[in-house]
Design goal:
The chain is 36% helix and 20% strand. An eight-stranded mixed β-sheet has the order 1-2-4-3-5-6-7-8, sandwiched between helices. About 7% of the residues have low confidence.
């Protein structure tokens, strides 16, 4: 489903090479608490809350944060395999301070409420793999429709603006499938170190996403590109053929999982570059 199997080896390799340091990791052992992200210039005041969203399979516990006044474009955030946790709450709040109404979901709500990773991003992948493997194309598409429908019922979400969705690691293909599930509503899709975007099956996430009407930002870790050097070319060809705008870039010096600030391979300069490109995408597609 994703490339998180390589997370530990990437962390060790990049630490040995001096490309990331323990200080950059931003991990508070045993708590999974993220380091503070850079402040948003001209940040708007926001309102945040824990919410539950009804889906065909039950109720999902989520985090919702939005500008304190007015209505803004909605954004659906799919976390990585470590799930809904302080790091993603920070990231969601930062995006809301930039002027968006943001829903960060717990993709594993069928199994347990967040936090689903005992030690945040320091949790061994083996403990989390069963949660990820339990998700299917059917559950992902159903959840995407339910989450977008919930956003559309909120007064803080502007109906006149398209919705954005972004995913990290295993969340990348979920963001792609969101565009396929609600093609007339989703206007922008971003994937950061997404794993499993391309497969040789007819229902591959990249083929589903190419049937949407969205604009795309696909940020690929250098380590992932080394393992799958042809994937970026497949993505470029697919979206060009579909005539969908797509910014596809390999982030040099970045290991799989480099964006969340509690990640073992967090790379702040490259994470900030990815963040700036995300805001540029939303500024165009969700205006």
């Amino acid at each position: 489903m994703c490339d998180q199997d390589h997370f530990d080896e990437d962390r060790k390799e990049y630490e040995a090479l001096g490309l990331v340091t323990r200080r950059q990791f931003g991990v508070v052992l045993g708590a999974g608490i993220a380091m503070m992200l850079p402040q948003v210039a001209n940040a708007v005041a926001v309102t945040e809350s824990d919410v539950t969203v009804t889906t065909p399979d039950g109720t999902a516990d989520c985090y919702f944060v939005h500008p304190a006044s007015g209505a803004a474009a909605g954004v659906l955030v799919w976390p990585d395999i470590f799930g809904l946790r302080p790091a993603f709450r920070q990231m969601g709040k930062r995006l809301a301070e930039s002027g968006y109404s943001v829903l960060v979901v717990n993709p594993f709500y069928r199994a347990k409420k967040a936090p689903t990773a005992e030690s945040g991003a320091a949790t061994p992948i083996a403990q989390l793999r069963p949660l990820a493997q339990a998700l299917t194309e059917t559950t992902e598409m159903a959840d995407a429709k339910a989450f977008v429908a919930w956003l559309d019922k909120q007064a803080s979400v502007a109906q006149s603006k398209k919705i954005g969705t972004q995913g990290y690691c295993m969340g990348g293909p979920l963001a792609f499938r969101t565009a396929a599930a609600v093609p007339d509503r989703v206007g922008a899709v971003a994937s950061f170190h997404g794993g499993g975007l391309v497969s040789d099956t007819p229902n591959s996430p990249h083929l589903q996403a190419a049937k949407s009407h969205a604009q795309f930002l696909i940020a690929i870790a250098a380590s992932d590109d080394q393992r799958s050097p042809n994937e970026k070319d497949v993505l470029k060809e697919t979206f060009a053929k579909a005539k969908l705008p797509a910014e596809i870039e390999v982030y040099e010096g970045a290991a799989h999982g480099w964006c969340p600030p509690d990640s073992g391979v967090y790379n702040e300069p490259q994470a900030e570059k990815a963040w700036s490109r995300l805001l540029a995408l939303y500024g165009k597609a969700l205006a």
